[in-house]
Write a structure and sequence with these properties.
Layout (H helix, E strand, L loop, with lengths): L2 H30 L7 E6 L11 H7 L3 E6 L5 E7 L13 H18 L3 E7 L3 E8 L2 H13 L9 H11 L5 E6 L8 H10 L1 E8 L11 E5 L6 E5 L3 H24 L3 E6 L4 H12 L1
Parallel strand pairs: 3-4, 3-6, 6-7, 7-10
Antiparallel strand pairs: 1-2, 4-5, 8-9
Helix pairs in contact: 1-3, 1-4, 1-8, 3-4, 5-6
Length: 289
C-alpha cells in the first residue's frame, strides 16, 4: 500500500470514527469508562540516553529486549488497545476482512477516548509483542495509530493471547482500561493470565469473526488455507457431515471462550464482519453502566 493510499484510508476511517464518537458514543463511553484519579506508570522500550537505573529487569527478561519504567502524574483514564495482528485476521468472505473491522472499532474507541480527555496506547501482538505504542493524547497520535494499523506488517503470523495479556499485566503498573481485540484463534489457554490481568486492569474482550467460521456454504470442493500455519487442504463442502462438524466445532469453541471470559470476570462482545458493530458497541457500553 503506497503512502497516498494509506492517507486516503486514514482520512476515510477518521471521518467515520469521529462521526460515530461525536454523535453516538460520547455520552455512553464517558459513563461506561471512568478514570480512577490515581498516579499512572508504565514501561516503554529503552531508548538511547535513558537512565539504566530505570530499566525494568523483569519485563526486559520476559520479552528479551530492554524496557524502562516511566512515572508521571495522571488523573485521566488510560486506554490500551490490544490488537491481534496475526495471519488469521487477514481473512474475509463478505463485506470486509476481520482486520478492517478491528481497525474501525479501534479508531472509534480511540476518538471516543480523546473526547473524554483520555490517553490512548496500543499493543500489536501475534505470538510475540510486535509493537508497543505508549499512551498519549490527541488527534495526531490517533491518526498515527490508525496509519500503523493499516500498514503494519507483523513478523509472525501466529497468535498467543496469553503472552499479550501477560505483557499488559507487566508493562502497565497502574490500572488502565484495555480492549483486547482478536478472533481468539489461539492454541494456549489464557484464562489464568486474563484473570490476573483483569484484577489489575479493566479488560474488555472484543471478538471479531467471519460468518464462514460459523457455517460453510455448500459449494462443492473448496481449497482452504490456514493463514497462521500455511497449511493447505481441499474439503468437500457438499458433505453435510463436514458442514455439521464445522458448525459444532464453532459452537464448542464459542462456549469455551465465553466460559473463559465469564470466569475471568471480563465483559465481552462478539462481532461478525457483516454485522453492524455500532449496535454491538452500544450494547457493551450499556452493559457497563
Amino acid at each position: 500500500m503506497d503512502t497516498q493510499e494509506i492517507l486516503k484510508k486514514v482520512r476515510k476511517i477518521e471521518i467515520k470514527a469521529r462521526g460515530l464518537s461525536n454523535n453516538i458514543f460520547a455520552g455512553q463511553y464517558h459513563s461506561a469508562f471512568k478514570g480512577r484519579g490515581m498516579a499512572f506508570s508504565e514501561v516503554r522500550e529503552y531508548q538511547y540516553g535513558d537512565d539504566i537505573r530505570d530499566i525494568d529487569w523483569n519485563v526486559s527478561a520476559r520479552f528479551h529486549r530492554p524496557y524502562v519504567k516511566v512515572f508521571e502524574e495522571e488523573r485521566e483514564l488510560t486506554v490500551m488497545l490490544m490488537i491481534d495482528v496475526s495471519g488469521s485476521l487477514d481473512f474475509g468472505t463478505q463485506t470486509a476482512m476481520k482486520r478492517d473491522i478491528v481497525t474501525e472499532i479501534a479508531a472509534t474507541i480511540a476518538f471516543s477516548a480523546i473526547q473524554n480527555n483520555d490517553k490512548i496506547g496500543v499493543v500489536f501482538f501475534s505470538d510475540k509483542i510486535e509493537k508497543y505504542i505508549p499512551p498519549k493524547k490527541g488527534r495526531k497520535h490517533i491518526l498515527f495509530i490508525i496509519r500503523e494499523m493499516l500498514d503494519f506488517q507483523p513478523e509472525s503470523k501466529k497468535t498467543d493471547v496469553k503472552m499479550a495479556v501477560e505483557f499488559l499485566t507487566s508493562a502497565l503498573k497502574r490500572r488502565c482500561t484495555a480492549f483486547l481485540m482478536s478472533d481468539f484463534y489461539t492454541q494456549n489457554s489464557f484464562e489464568d493470565a486474563l484473570t490476573i490481568c483483569n484484577r489489575k486492569h479493566d479488560v474488555v474482550a472484543v471478538q471479531v469473526y467471519d460468518p464462514r467460521a460459523v457455517s460453510l456454504p455448500n459449494v462443492g470442493l473448496l481449497k482452504v488455507l490456514d493463514a497462521e500455519t500455511g497449511h493447505e487442504m481441499v474439503i468437500d463442502t457438499s458433505d453435510r457431515r463436514l458442514r455439521n462438524a464445522h458448525n459444532t466445532y464453532w459452537r464448542n469453541r464459542q462456549m469455551i471462550l465465553k466460559e473463559t471470559f465469564n470466569k475471568s470476570n471480563v465483559d465481552s462482545i462478539s462481532i461478525a464482519t457483516n454485522q453492524d458493530y455500532v449496535k454491538s458497541l452500544l450494547q457493551l457500553f450499556a452493559l457497563r453502566n
